[in-house]
Amino acid sequence: SKEIGRNSFQLYKASMNARSLERLSMLSRFQYALEHDEFELYFQPLQCLASGRISSVECLLRWNDPNLGMISPAQFIPLAEELGLIIKLDQWVINKACESMALWRRQGSDIRRIAINVSAQHLCQGDLAITVANSLSKHCLDGRFIELELTESSFISNLHEAKSELQKLKSLGVSIALDDFGTGYSALSYLTKLPIDTLKIDASFVAKIPDEYGNSEIVSAIIAMAKALNLQVVAEGVEKSEQRQFLQKLGCNIVQGYLFCKPLSADDWLRFYHAEKAT
Ligand code: C2E
Ligand code: CA
Ligand code: CA
Ligand code: CA
């Protein structure tokens, strides 16, 4: 049994080494990728249910590694957070999103707003409001053209700090969305303590509409609460028309998901936008 113990320790050590090696190579690959434009923004429109029109567009990060191909943000975002690179990556995204929006507006499009995902770590650790202000002025863009999507975990470590950072953002005209609502550390008090404009109902609730017992009641309660607090409500991950119908009946303003449009490259997104506008 001593032998087995030693073998499994060797195995453990080997996998530890593989893991730190993997992290190390990831770290350098990541930095390389940032400098060599291997990151790209994809765009997914949100649809206003009342008018059927595009209400805004969310940018979603993609990593196109020449060797590994497309890597999902679900994989590399947690890694970037762990390696301390997330703020740099967020800054890249914020700048790119402002650049894109400024370009579209110069081209005469009337896209109302671009939504940008911001890592939970960023709000209190980095100068988020300064990053945003710099990107806006660099691209001569008004703050009302952007919305930041944050998750509740952003507020946990320091609610006071989070509030003052959000207020700075609000004074730039930027709007704030609470992403993945209903998962994680939902504390309803955030909704009244922080200057939040939009609530995004997590896709996991939408996926269970209308079948699963109790789920529809939760979604309906979230929508009613959001409306009572004068917040916009977005339902994420809407894939089926019956989900859309159900949400519309409950008074949900906006939907996002494959049913309306999947995330698209910049060119495909602009084609989609112009085609929608023509109808
Ligand atoms: P999220 O912000 O909740 O984004 C929604 C995710 O759901 C996206 O995955 C989107 O492609 C996917 N999605 C959209 N519609 C549907 C649908 O109808 N069905 C299904 N099954 N999925 C749908 P994606 O692009 O893989 O992004 C995953 C997560 O990575 C995002 O979740 C967000 O938390 C994070 N992320 C993405 N881009 C960025 C970024 O630029 N910065 C930061 N910090 N995080 C990002
Ligand atoms: Ca989001
Ligand atoms: Ca979400
Ligand atoms: Ca998410």
From TrEMBL:
* Annotated protein name in UniProt: cyclic-guanylate-specific phosphodiesterase
Annotated Gene Ontology MF terms? cyclic-guanylate-specific phosphodiesterase activity; kinase activity
**Species in which this protein is naturally found:** Pseudoalteromonas byunsanensis
Q: Does the keyword Glycoprotein apply?
A: no
Q: Which key words tag this protein in UniProt?
A: c-di-GMP, CBS domain, Kinase, Transferase
Could you tell me the Gene Ontology terms of the biological process aspect for this record? cellular response to nitric oxide
* Limits of the EAL domain: 23-277
UniProt superkingdom: Bacteria
Q: Does the keyword Chaperone apply?
A: no
